[in-house]
Specification:
Number of helices: 8
CATH topology: Rossmann fold
Structural class: alpha/beta
Number of domains: 1
Order of helices and strands: HHEEHHEHHEHEEHE
Bound molecules: zinc ion
Shape: globular
Strand content: 5-15%
Low-confidence stretches: none
CATH architecture: 3-Layer(aba) Sandwich
CATH class: Alpha Beta
Largest sheet: 5 strands, parallel
Distance between the termini: 34 Å
C-alpha cells in the first residue's frame, strides 16, 4: 500500500507501544506489536472460523456449504483487535478503524495473490446497519473498513447496495436465536442478469456468521454469481481452547 504523503512530514508512532515508526510503516503498528496481535490463523477458508489445523474446512462448512465462497478475517476478536473494533464502533475511533481497515486490506490482497484461480470481486458492499442503530451511532463502521480495501483492490465501494430492515439483535441474543435470524432482513437495491458480479461483503466482526450468511443469500438471490466475506475480525467459537 502506498505511504500517505503526510507521513513524510509527521512520522507516526505505534498505536500500541508508542515506538517511533518509519514513514513507510502502514498501518500505525510496529513490527513487534504486529506479531503480538491475535492473528486468526489457521482458519476455515470458507467461513473464517478459527481452527486448530490449517488446510481444512470447519465441521459446519464440511456439512453444509455456506452461501459465501470465501471468508477473509485476519484477526480474532480478542485483545487489541476487539478493543479497536469497540472503539471504532462506539467512539468512531478513526485511527483504530484505519488500522483495522489496512490490516484487512493487506490480508485480502494476500489471499487473492495466493489463490490466482479465485475470482476477484467486482464491487464491495459494506454490511449495513439498521436505521435505528445508524441514527444512534452516526456512522457505519463497515464503511470505514471497506474504504482501504476498495482502494487496495481497485474496485468500487457500493455503500448503499444493501439495506437492512429489522432483524434480531446480535448482542445479548443466544447463538441459537442468531442462527435462526431470518434471511430477509437485508434488501439488495440491484438485480443482475446472469452472469452476475462477484460481490465482497465487508464487516467489522463475524460472530456466528448468521448476518454475513443472510446478506450473502440476499445478494445471490439478486443475481450475484459469487459472494466473498471480508471482515476485520472473527469471534472464536465458545469451546475454543484458551
Ligand atoms: Zn508497538
Ligand atoms: Zn467454516
Amino acid at each position: 500500500m502506498t505511504t500517505p504523503w503526510w507521513r513524510h512530514l509527521l512520522p507516526g508512532r505505534c498505536l500500541l507501544c508508542q515506538a517511533a515508526l518509519p514513514p513507510e510503516a502502514d498501518p500505525d503498528v510496529c513490527g513487534y506489536c504486529l506479531d503480538a496481535l491475535p492473528w486468526n490463523e489457521p482458519a476455515c477458508p470458507r467461513c473464517g472460523l478459527p481452527l486448530l489445523q490449517a488446510g481444512a474446512r470447519c465441521r459446519d462448512c464440511a456439512r453444509r456449504r455456506p452461501p459465501c465462497s470465501i471468508t477473509v478475517a485476519p484477526l480474532r476478536y480478542e485483545a487489541e483487535a476487539a478493543l479497536w473494533v469497540r472503539r471504532l464502533k462506539d467512539r468512531a475511533g478513526m485511527v483504530e478503524g484505519r488500522t483495522l481497515g489496512v490490516l484487512l486490506a493487506q490480508a485480502v490482497q494476500r489471499r487473492y495473490q495466493q489463490s490466482p484461480a479465485l475470482r476477484r470481486p467486482d464491487l464491495l458492499a459494506p454490511v449495513p446497519l439498521g436505521w435505528w442503530r445508524l441514527a444512534r451511532r452516526g456512522h457505519n463502521q463497515a464503511i470505514t473498513l471497506a474504504v482501504p480495501v476498495a482502494r487496495a483492490l481497485g474496485v468500487p465501494l457500493a455503500r448503499s447496495l444493501l439495506t437492512r430492515h429489522g432483524g434480531v439483535r446480535q448482542r445479548g441474543s443466544s447463538r441459537a436465536r442468531r442462527l435462526n435470524q431470518p434471511a430477509n432482513v437485508f434488501r439488495c437495491r440491484r438485480r443482475w442478469e446472469p452472469p452476475g458480479p462477484c460481490v465482497a461483503l465487508v464487516d467489522d466482526v463475524i460472530t456466528t456468521g448468521a448476518t454475513a450468511a443472510a446478506a450473502a443469500r440476499t445478494l445471490i438471490d439478486a443475481g450475484a454469481a459469487e459472494v466473498h466475506v471480508l471482515a476485520a475480525t472473527r469471534t472464536p467459537p465458545p469451546d475454543a481452547p484458551g
